[in-house]
Amino acid sequence: xxxxxxxxxxxxxxxxxxxxxxxxxxxxxxxxxxxxxxxxxxxxxxxxxxxxxxxxxxxxxxxxxxxxxxxxxxxxxxxxxxxxxxxxxxxxxxxxxxxxxxxxxxxxxxxxxxxxxxxxxxxxxxxxxxxxxxxxxxxxxxxxxxxxxxxxxxxxxxxxxxxxxxxxxxxxxxxxxxxxxxxxxxxxxxxxxxxxxxxxxxxxxxxxxxxxxxxxxxxxxxxxxxxxxxxxxxxxxxxxxxxxxxxxxxxxxxxxxxxxxxxxxxxxxxxxxxxxxxxxxxxxxxxxxxxxxxxxxxxxxxxxxxxxxxxxxxxxxxxxxxxxxxxxx
Amino acid sequence: xxxxxxxxxxxxxxxxxxxxxxxxxxxxxxxxxxxxxxxxxxxxxxxxxxxxxxxxxxxxxxxxxxxxxxxxxxxxxxxxxxxxxxxxxxxxxxxxxxxxxxxxxxxxxxxxxxxxxxxxxxxxxxxxxxxxxxxxxxxxxxxxxxxxxxxxxxxxxxxxxxxxxxxxxxxxxxxxxxxxxxxxxxxxxxxxxxxxxxxxxxxxxxxxxxxxxxxxxxxxxxxxxxxxxxxxxxxxxxxxxxxxxxxxxxxxxxxxxxxxxxxxxxxxxxxxxxxxxxxxxxxxxxxxxxxxxxxxxxxxxxxxxxxxxxxxxxxxxxxxxxxxxxxxx
Amino acid sequence: xxxxxxxxxxxxxxxxxxxxxxxxxxxxxxxxxxxxxxxxxxxxxxxxxxxxxxxxxxxxxxxxxxxxxxxxxxxxxxxxxxxxxxxxxxxxxxxxxxxxxxxxxxxxxxxxxxxxxxxxxxxxxxxxxxxxxxxxxxxxxxxxxxxxxxxxxxxxxxxxxxxxxxxxxxxxxxxxxxxxxxxxxxxxxxxxxxxxxxxxxxxxxxxxxxxxxxxxxxxxxxxxxxxxxxxxxxxxxxxxxxxxxxxxxxxxxxxxxxxxxxxxxxxxxxxxxxxxxxxxxxxxxxxxxxxxxxxxxxxxxxxxxxxxxxxxxxxxxxxxxxxxxxxxx
Amino acid sequence: xxxxxxxxxxxxxxxxxxxxxxxxxxxxxxxxxxxxxxxxxxxxxxxxxxxxxxxxxxxxxxxxxxxxxxxxxxxxxxxxxxxxxxxxxxxxxxxxxxxxxxxxxxxxxxxxxxxxxxxxxxxxxxxxxxxxxxxxxxxxxxxxxxxxxxxxxxxxxxxxxxxxxxxxxxxxxxxxxxxxxxxxxxxxxxxxxxxxxxxxxxxxxxxxxxxxxxxxxxxxxxxxxxxxxxxxxxxxxxxxxxxxxxxxxxxxxxxxxxxxxxxxxxxxxxxxxxxxxxxxxxxxxxxxxxxxxxxxxxxxxxxxxxxxxxxxxxxxxxxxxxxxxxxxx
Lengths: 329, 329, 329, 329
Description:
Four copies of one chain form a homotetramer. The model of chain A has no long low-confidence stretch (mean pLDDT 96). Chain A is 40% helix and 26% strand. By secondary structure, chain A is an alpha/beta fold. In chain A, a hairpin with a 4-residue loop joins strand 9 and strand 10. In chain A, strands 12-11-7-10-9-8-15 form a seven-stranded mixed sheet. Chain A has a six-stranded parallel sheet with strand order 3-2-1-4-5-6, sandwiched between helices. In chain A, strands 13-14 form a two-stranded antiparallel sheet. The first copy, chain A, has two domains: 3-114, NAD(P)-binding Rossmann-like Domain (Rossmann fold); 123-279 and 310-328, Dihydrodipicolinate Reductase, domain 2, CATH 3.30.360. The A-C interface holds A 142, 144-145, 147, 149, 151, 189, 191, 193, 195-198, 210-214, 216, 219-222, 224, 226, 228, 230-233, 236, 242, 244-247, 320, 324-326, 328 and C 142, 144-145, 147, 149, 151, 189, 191, 193, 195-198, 210-214, 216, 219-222, 224, 226, 228, 230-233, 236, 242, 244-247, 320, 324-326, 328. Strand 14 (265-268) of chain B pairs antiparallel with strand 14 of chain C.
């Protein structure tokens, strides 16, 4: 069985998913929709997909699943429409910036019985999957402390910042999901500190660019998250899990791993420049997992509840940082 | 322009090239030929290629180029046939195990003006390319000493060994090509030592499994090559170039780069299991380079002369090891 | 000029300092005092020092400086006595577990004009010193975020825990000092989470064994500290500083740095087993800095004010963890 | 029992041994002899040793052992004199540059029953010792191939070169000893290539500065040695042993192990600047092993036969390089 896809949104992340679908032998990209015609055409040309409107895709009988890569404020509406249209849905994070709206949307998903997977791509990175597998095999005993370092190479445009819901909902949300994935237990309290150290304009837009967060679970497990909107040496993505019997860590990845030595020392090249190159395999694995779940009639994971849980942590962290207090969930 | 390919041979390395062609947007795999029907069918199904005979491919007007992945003893004949048929040719190494036969074959290529590229895939590994680029940029000054460590995870079947032409022509030949590529100057003398340390059956088949080679160029640059047919920790592929101003090295690659620590220490997973996974990107880049050269009307490199030069080094090394003497070229 | 030392306390850390003094050509260990006669004799024999009482050392005219390695609850009294006796004083951290008592003691030091250095040995580790030097040279721009991972190989005896003042005053205090040293700015707020994950008996003794702390300075710089009383892979001591132009990190140290590869992967030995081996050079550098300051008539650093500042952070962290709130200083 | 030492020669390596003796609690440096008075006085002052002539040390009843650090051409004479004088002897490598003279000298050692240890310091490096221990424990199975990379930071003065006996006897000799130590079997054939790539003046002095050597043992084990007189990135000292069950490697050491990341990549500092800092622990361990052997009445190892074996390999390598042929021993 080949899963027939419609792609909603042909921007940066849409292209990433188009490539993942295009190189998956169990999938075919049938249609792409985007108001920006050239972006849609590029994908159409590259993968032999038709250019259609969202309405046409909604009504199409030759589409089994959609990938939602449109702006965040359209996600919840589109999920509801395509859930009602009986399509399987893969939606980029977040479902919405508002917890109440996410809850409404998930109620529709529940009622319609639609398959919904949320795009926390990092769960599908082979290195992070190996970390999780190491935990599952018992090699480090009981998980005690998770440390996540996540720094973007540089800040996005201020316009993006303004629509992003803020750093906790836009950037840290991936780390909240990763912390949940690795802790294996829900956080019950959050302490966050947030500053503007990278670019004053980010502060003027009401957001932060440098944050530190501690999550604590009911049994006292802890997760530390360190975020910055700028790392001169590339896209810094590290996780480390400390347990009763040992430790497992996933190091950074670089596109080229040579080392040059001279009188100044030994130098390795910078890290990947951003998520499109760093997480190429993760995006391919993610769509493959979505397809595999569809084929097997299983629920795809992470699902709507995971999206909601991460958003709640983001809201709690924002409250913690703003009011300078530990927030209990 | 899309380059239309015929694939001759659907075995292990044939599959690797089929995948590289299949994922290259400037190429299309039109036909595949293999006496082993199931192998041909697998590739046919996966890439939408027709199953044809070699004769049919030779005469086809819808084929621009062939990739020769058949057994070594057919390479020279096929190169000659397809050179005469006006096709561009990508041939897996070696062209032939006999220098005289290679010279004859290259004469035909010369006469027909055919485009011929020889499959020294390692030249297209992104890490080794970065080593070469570092040299070209002058970052390590003048090249003085090249060190190549190349160990297979385990020996091939004895039947393969018997037909292989011996370790120097089958395995070290890649390192001879890499040494030439990095030295930037032709070796003029060779000292080789060869032993049977891994498997006595290899010795009984008249071959060696563990070899050390020194190459020296006219100006005194040196290359050291260390080969073993068995490395318990995976496919060991390292190069290091020492120059007047510094050193550049390409480290081993692993499919998953985590580290697990416990009371026994810090453990990283083994290396890639063999060339198909280690050199995935190299194979894709190699075919891309072949296509790019065709499109640009340039000679693809490495060509027939490179194949011949590496074979001559292999013959010299064998002579050196057998007779216990340094051999001058 | 040779500085003549009296050592007060011949226990584990006393031995470390005796060795540092013994191998410093500008110093001589003249006397050692300890109620445990065998411990004192061991040091006396090894370094040719006399065994004396604390009173004798206090009144001795052949002693320029003392190193206080007695139990914590004697530190403040001894500092006051030797300050009045006109000796230079090196005192192991902490000065006292009570901020008020520390303030009294420092007032005496102030009045007497005594030289007082406090034993934050990590400031003298060559790797951490190189981190600081990198910052001072401007190589990473403005410091933004400091990350400190500090894990003991295993918990101390419960008796020690009971007298220790708790993990924040006993263990994290080193990290608070390191954070101050690297941030270059005083923290103004602290959020700490603390759990008992390693050993219930630690919890029953009223202490924690696993803590996470965020410090924030007035300008929004942040420091993250992760502590555990147990790391199966050795004494885990890492620092990383992220700045506007780059990042600098000091990795863990191991006594032997080989790597063994086999079918299970690549394994490096565990880390140093604890501070005596990990910080051998730091202890030697520390005493050398104390001696150098004395010789130059400079104030030794870190001094009493640094000891007090770290203790205040420890108290604030304990309050934060106990009451589940961010504490402002 | 304290071993009472006389030091012959107070130059660079003499100072290294004086420090090792000075910090060993089972040893005392009683006397130092050097025609260069200031050099002798420096050591005398630092360690409380008397300045004596070689004759005085030879006849002294308060000297148990001598450390010979004088110029190479005096080694054999001094060994004979002190063997006859009944002193234990530690002699820096080489015993002599001439195999015949070494044999004569060792005959005297044999007749007198003197204890003689030769200064192959690298056998006592903790990292290389751990490599050997790993082999002895069977962790890599049977040794098959040893790879030694050994590069000096820069060439010595031409005057030194002229008296050195050439690179094979002066520099590679350490690697020949290390190869013997790790192979566990004597080499029976040698192929060496040698060039002048670093400094023409070295060639004009009749020596080489860049050499590659293959050693082969009777059972076919192989060792590869790569030497250069210049490495811009520091004192490059690596060994790797490949066996039937795995591989063990000792990486380079650096005085400070931090990493600085910025837009140009990740940079670690250069290696140690030379043997005095790189092998500090090795020199201390070496003297400790000499003392321990004396105390236990055991023969110290490596002894005269090891010095002779390494010199024979050096001579064979020189012959191989000069005549362009493999040399059988």
